[in-house]
Specification:
heterodimer
């Protein structure tokens, strides 16, 4: 008992021992709870409740245009979506788009970040200007590249068609090149953000480790592979997660360029789900589809966490 | 790399690569801007005319077909109110999580990040029905409320990292000196994380301002935003690439300029978030 009486206020606060009513520790906890709860309640009300409703709606055959003919169908919507070849192709398209776009953005972004690492006026100005694509409205980006890539009069597309780089219908006219064009648009817009996050990570690295590698006579490639990349993993992880999730949900640029065509070659999951739900008002199907997307995103996120954990362990052990 | 002096040829090569990247990143935006000032028949002329007689025609068309002031006001209100609301909700929550000393705090922070990743359609359809039922469909609030969930989730996660990196001693000292808890939070902790706050604000504002899917389905003719109008601008018969470029002066240039003005805070804000 005497030891409790002698404990300093700071010591008590840290141990979280039982307090009499109105002590500092308790008021502190109440205060923090009062700061934290509004956000939590807000996201529960505005995100989780609609999400749960979406789960519920996905069990019904329900079209907003014929609301009276609503019928409980259990998991039929899910089975229907999974076995639909158009959905299967959309999943494939989404995966191809995400892997290629994010992969290219990462390699180019890392290169740019390394180039811009040294602090100089030139690099600061370049970095500022590189923010421009990130800020441009994605819808506008889609429209601009649609104009530039069109075969008959686009500034890039015209020459590409003339020199045989694209077919005569232009990049958007054929399945593979249409997908390629969408990847190109995404790379144009988001490589700078990737570079920025990686650069932020580079600037936070301890200078001593890199100097130690220099002293040990490491070649630039060794330095990058053995020193920089392992230490940069948290930033790499964040950049890849953020970009992968956003690429997986690509919508705007598809909407203004290909509308999923030609021949469903660029019909990605998000576009398909929006079309089902907000154009055809098949609420049940669209909800099932978006829940499947949610599950896929969850799987990808879990995969990232596993990889980063393993990398962490290897670095420590 | 590092801090050593770089031989001149290498430096020249590096700068050449950066300049090339800048050209690729800026040329399409340059095309968009010049398009607005060109007469219709010169927009697609070959080789691209660098010297052209600037014309007001495209802007005149835009003002004839669109209530630009109203559209800008809608965009500004939706993005501004949404950003303020996200910061007001997210900063205290990030602080509470960082200072709670609770083991589960990191898990909660990741829960918020996960919310940011939910595909928008998953919530958009039920949210649409919900807004219809309570009569908010078609108002600014429908978009603000939905944007705010995504943005709050992001702000909580980012500010959690910032407050966790901030040593608590200053606040503790202030509390011992008799400052109120609110005072210690608002006057000591919050000013210390200003770069993080600016980065968050810019990212939230950019997301709302540039977002297209939510306002396209949740607003009406009176409340629609610039990004929604842009698509109309492109879809109508009398409207050309030139008019779209002119409208983009209002929809896109402000946000690009804002990002340029705040770029130092932005980079700094991201940098500190990693410790």
């Amino acid at each position: 008992m005497t030891s409790v009486g002698l404990a300093t206020p700071a010591g008590r606060r840290r141990t979280g021992a039982p307090f009499a009513a109105g002590t500092f520790g308790q008021r502190r906890r109440l205060f923090l709870l009062a700061l934290g709860l509004p956000s939590l309640l807000y996201v529960i009300a505005v995100a989780l409740v609609p999400l749960a409703q979406g789960m519920w709606l996905s069990l019904f055959e329900y079209n907003l245009l014929r609301p009276d003919r609503r019928a409980f169908v259990g998991l039929d919507n899910y089975l229907e979506q999974i076995s639909d070849p158009v959905v299967q192709q959309a999943l494939w398209n989404t995966l191809v788009f995400t892997v290629l776009a994010v992969g290219i953005e990462f390699l180019l972004g890392l290169g740019l970040a390394l180039l811009l690492w040294r602090d100089s006026l030139f690099n600061r100005v370049a970095l500022a200007l590189m923010l421009v694509p990130v800020a441009v409205t994605p819808l506008v980006v889609g429209l601009v590249f649609r104009a530039l890539l069109t075969a008959d009069f686009g500034m890039i597309g015209h020459f590409a068609a003339q020199w045989g780089l694209s077919g005569e219908r232009g990049f958007f006219g054929y399945p593979n090149s249409a997908m390629g064009a969408l990847i190109f648009i995404d790379v144009w817009q988001w490589t700078p953000l990737m570079a920025l996050i990686l650069l932020a990570g580079l600037k936070a690295l301890p200078q001593e480790a890199i100097e130690a590698a220099d002293v040990a006579g490491a070649s630039p490639w060794q330095k990058l592979r053995l020193v920089i990349v392992p230490m940069l993993l948290p930033a790499i992880f964040l950049a890849l997660v953020l970009r992968t999730m956003d690429a997986f949900r690509i919508f705007d640029s598809v909407f203004v360029t290909t509308k999923g065509g030609p021949d469903n070659a660029t019909n990605v999951l998000m576009f398909h789900a929006v079309k089902e739900g907000l154009e055809f008002f098949n609420i049940g199907d669209a909800s099932a589809l978006s829940n499947l997307m949610l599950a896929a995103i969850g799987l990808i996120a879990a995969g990232f966490v596993l990889v980063i954990r393993r990398a962490d362990r290897r670095m420590l052990g | 790399m590092g801090g050593r002096a770089v031989p001149l040829p290498v430096l020249a090569l590096q700068r050449g690569a950066i300049l090339f990247a800048l050209l690729v990143f800026l040329a399409p935006v340059g095309w968009l801007v010049t398009t607005a000032w060109k007469p219709a028949r010169e927009i697609f002329s070959f080789p691209p005319t660098l010297s052209f007689t600037p014309t007001w025609d495209n802007f005149a068309t835009v003002f004839r077909f669109f209530d630009v002031a109203q559209l800008s006001a809608n965009s500004l209100i939706i993005s501004g109110v949404g950003t303020l609301l996200s910061l007001a909700l997210g900063i205290p929550c990030g602080y509470a999580l960082a200072r709670s000393g609770w083991r589960g705090a990191v898990g909660v922070a990741y829960f918020f990040l996960a919310l940011r990743m939910v595909p928008p359609v998953a919530t958009l359809i039920p949210f649409y029905l919900f807004m219809r039922d309570i009569g908010l469909l078609g108002t600014w609030w429908a978009v603000i409320l939905l944007d705010t969930t995504l943005n709050t989730a992001f702000v909580v996660w980012m500010m959690f990292a910032w407050f966790r990196a901030l040593p608590p001693e200053m606040e503790e000292a202030a509390l011992v000196d008799g400052a109120s808890q609110t005072g210690a939070f608002l006057r000591i902790a919050v000013p210390m994380v200003k770069p993080g706050t600016v980065a968050c604000a810019l990212l939230c504002f950019m997301l709302s301002w540039n977002s297209f899917l939510f306002p396209a389905f949740l607003t009406t003719a009176d409340t629609k935003t610039l990004s929604v109008a842009l698509l109309t601008a492109y879809g109508t018969k009398d409207i050309t690439w030139g008019t779209m470029g002119a409208l983009a002066h209002f929809s896109t240039l402000p946000i690009v300029l804002l990002a340029l003005v705040l770029n130092r805070h932005f980079v700094q804000g991201l940098t500190r978030g990693f410790h």
